[in-house]
Design a protein that fits this description.
Helix content: 40-55%
Strand order of the largest sheet: 6-8-9-11-10
Largest sheet: 5 strands, mixed
Low-confidence stretches: 127-147, 412-419
Oligomer: single chain
Distance between the termini: 20 Å
Mean pLDDT: 76
Length: about 450
């Protein structure tokens, strides 16, 4: 259940935007940490170099101006975790010397050419003999795993001894400390909260639009949606409201047009019927009157079809098993063989009269052309299915869709009674479509025709 909810959330606009934003935040944080580490490394190297040179110059001056018995105290006071100092009678072996640093120190000290200065510079990847031989007895600095050697060498003192030094600098701080991770989590939570608020405010009109579109697809009269939110959302809602108004006007105009045509045609047909009464008795008179009565019947059915198509009945909750049971009982009372399987409770929100009319047409067709009828009701999470099967001759496969067209009559296939104009299935499908559902016909494998009504939840 949790995985389904996660997939549903990730499939939503809010989920995808938040996921992209958090990914961008992590990427920006990683890039920022890396830039910080590079900049910090360069800054520490520069600061360490300047600090080392200033400390060396100060210690060298102090040693040259102090009596020898104070030299060890001066060294102990001057040592630190990033600067190791010792006195030796000879300079240690040096690597590649740095003339730039040597000139700076010599200039600051005002050293004569007779006193030697040896300074070597190493980057963190350079090889250094650590610790120097002269300092291995200094246990506090025996194993400095947190440092990289930057400068090392020796400065000759006025008494002939050498001040041996080694400069170290702290490694950069870890990029993902507990504080960094906590700050990132808090920042991500704050960003996600703000985005959820913004997206809910933005998508609320879209959710309302989806609900109203679903109601419109089921034939329910929906009120205009309040045009709120960003400009693009307001434009979409405004377009939907205009579309709904145009659809309502189209249906109303078509119904009024068909009613007017029906009214106008009934007058001449009635006039012709009256005049036909004055014709001599005979076969021609009978055929003329039969044709006029058939035209009048088709005209009445056409008007009924138009009215059913544009019906604006209120939508309410329906107990489908009770509705089917009522329809089947009515047919059984009239002597028809109709059976309804035991049903589970299914509540559907629809238009009672329209849905009853559609199901009644299907059941009456079944008992009329198939004799026996079986009805089944199935409901799942997504849809409700009503299956109505008769035991008649069925319909040729190529004509299963043709029977839904108005005034289509398959006399040879279904043995239609006289007076039928072929609007029953057309009206039934129209009413089902108004509920957002679908009506289909199929020949049953064991004989007969099966009508399946699928209604969305």
């Amino acid at each position: 259940m949790g995985i389904k909810r996660l997939r549903y959330w990730l499939g939503s606009l809010a989920g995808q935007v938040i996921l992209v934003a958090l990914f961008a935040l992590m990427l920006i944080q990683l890039v920022g940490v890396q830039i910080y580490r590079v900049e910090r490394e360069e800054a520490l190297g520069l600061v360490n170099s300047r600090f080392t040179l200033q400390r060396l110059i100060a210690v060298t001056r102090l040693l040259n101006q102090s009596p020898p018995e104070l030299h060890q105290e001066i060294l102990r006071a001057s040592r630190s975790e990033t600067l190791l100092l010792t006195l030796d009678g000879a300079p240690p072996g040096a690597g590649e010397r740095s003339g730039n640093f040597e000139r700076i120190v010599r200039g600051k000290l005002g050293y004569p050419a007779t006193l030697d200065i040896r300074i070597s510079a190493e980057n963190r990847n350079g090889h250094v003999d650590w610790p120097p031989r002269e300092q291995r007895e200094l246990r506090p600095h025996r194993h400095p795993p947190r440092h990289d050697i930057r400068l090392y060498g020796a400065i000759e003192l006025a008494d002939g001894r050498w001040l041996v030094f080694t400069s170290l600098v702290d490694r950069e701080a870890p990029g993902w400390s507990a504080k960094a991770i906590l700050s990132l989590v808090l920042l991500a939570a704050l960003l996600a909260g703000l985005m959820i608020w913004l997206l809910q405010r933005t998508t609320r009109p879209l959710k309302e639009l989806a609900r109203q579109a679903e109601r419109l697809g089921r034939g329910d009269k929906a009120e205009p949606i309040a045009e709120t939110g960003p400009r693009e959302i307001r434009d979409t809602l405004s377009a939907f409201n205009r579309m709904q108004d145009r659809l309502d006007r189209f249906v109303s105009d078509r119904t009024r047009m068909l009613a007017a045509i029906s009214h106008d045609l009934r007058t001449p047909i009635t006039t012709l019927l009256l005049r036909s009464e004055f014709l001599p008795e005979g076969e021609d008179k009978q055929k003329l009157q039969d044709g006029l009565r058939q035209m009048e019947q088709m005209l009445a059915a056409t008007l009924q079809f138009a009215r059913e198509d544009g019906l604006a009945e209120p939508v309410r909750d329906l107990d489908l098993p009770s509705l089917l049971e009522s329809l089947c009982d009515d047919l059984q009372d009239n002597g028809h063989d109709v059976s309804l399987e035991e049903q589970v409770p299914v509540i559907y929100r629809g238009r009672p009269t329209a849905l009853r009319r559609a199901l009644q047409n299907l059941l009456e067709n079944g008992v009329k052309y198939g004799g026996k009828v079986e009805v089944r009701l199935r409901g799942d999470r997504d849809a409700i299915r009503i299956q109505i099967r008769d035991f008649g001759p069925g319909i040729p496969e190529e004509q299963l869709e043709e029977v839904f067209k108005p005034f289509t009559r398959l006399d040879s296939a279904r043995n239609l009674e006289d007076g039928s104009v072929g609007l029953g299935l057309a009206i039934a499908r129209t009413l089902i479509h108004q509920h957002g559902g679908e009506l289909s016909l199929a020949n049953h494998p064991r004989g007969g025709l099966q009508a399946t009504v699928t209604l969305p939840r």
